[in-house]
Amino acid sequence: MINCAEEAELVDEANEDGNRINLMGLALERFIEKAFCKGLSDSVVEFRGGKNHPPDLLIRNGAAIEVKKEETIGEISLNSSFPSRYLTPESKITKKCKEILRQSKNRDIVYVIGLVESVKQGDAKVSCLRNLSFVYGSTYVASSETYVNVASEVQGAIRELPYEDTDTKELGRVNSVDILGRASLRIRGMWILKNPLKEIHISRVISGLVEKTPFLVGIIPWEKYLEEELFVKNKGIQVTPIDNESNIIIDDLIEEWKWKVGEFGNSVQIQATLHSNIRVHNRAFDCYKTSLPDPDNPATDIEVGIVLSNF
Question: Taking residues 209-236, what's their average pLDDT?
Answer without folding.
Answer: 83
